[in-house]
Design goal:
The chain is 40% helix and 15% strand. It contains 8 helices and 5 strands, in the order βαββαβαβααααα.
């Protein structure tokens, strides 16, 4: 499948069993004039195929092949809960990016789709789900923030723990109970991590930390 040229319209196919999730993703496509949704029966023509799953595991990778067995098919996987698939296998199946549903804003979605289609300079890699596999597991691609030239600051163990639990959907009061901290301490740790990473809010901090391989 040829890569798209910057500025060209990217043809997008969407597979999402949950009607609300599918409607949301279709809405993201409609918001960006550079994206155009294709019907399911034209999936082989898509420059990027978006697949939404709750848990990304071996069966989800099998689903990708059933959806489109065309050589060179490129997938963006939107994950609702857990990433449990082998990263090397995901890359071989055509997965070129993973976006967590909680952080899938219209802008993040559009940029990820264009990157998967090859219309941007580098593609984001499938990201390791916090706590699901060893942190030194091989990634499907090496285009992290560090390899793009941005210095990646480190996090201390408390900051890693807090960001990991936020990535799992927990609130500050729940994190405080789990880590035996006060809620005020959790917020202080979170603020410190945001400042260290130079991020705007907690979602930005978690998203950046995952991309950079910090959690």
């Amino acid at each position: 499948m040829p890569h798209q040229v910057l500025g060209e319209t990217v043809r997008v196919a969407i597979h999402a069993p949950a009607p609300l999730v599918r409607a949301g993703l279709a809405g993201f496509v409609a918001l960006d004039p550079r994206l155009r949704e294709l019907p399911q029966d034209r999936i082989r023509e898509a420059d990027a195929i978006v697949v939404a799953v709750d848990v990304a595991d071996a069966s989800a990778l099998d689903l990708l092949h059933r959806l489109c067995d065309k050589p060179g098919a490129r997938f963006l996987v939107v994950v609702g809960k857990k990433w449990r698939a082998d990263l090397t296998a995901a890359r071989k199946r055509g997965v070129r990016a993973v976006v967590w549903w909680d952080f899938c804003s219209p802008d993040v979605f559009a940029r990820s789709v264009r990157a998967v289609a090859g219309s941007e300079e580098s593609s984001p890699s499938p990201q390791l789900a916090p706590g699901d596999q060893p942190r030194n597991a091989e990634r499907a691609d090496h285009h992290t923030a560090a390899s793009r030239g941005r210095a990646v600051p480190g996090l201390d163990s408390r900051e890693v723990d807090v960001l990991r639990l936020i990535a799992e959907g927990k609130q500050c009061d729940e994190i405080a109970i789990e880590l035996s901290y006060s809620e005020r301490t959790v917020r202080y740790i979170l603020y410190g991590a945001m400042k260290r990473l130079r991020t705007r809010n907690r979602a930005h901090a978690v998203s950046y930390a995952i991309r950079a391989g910090l959690i």
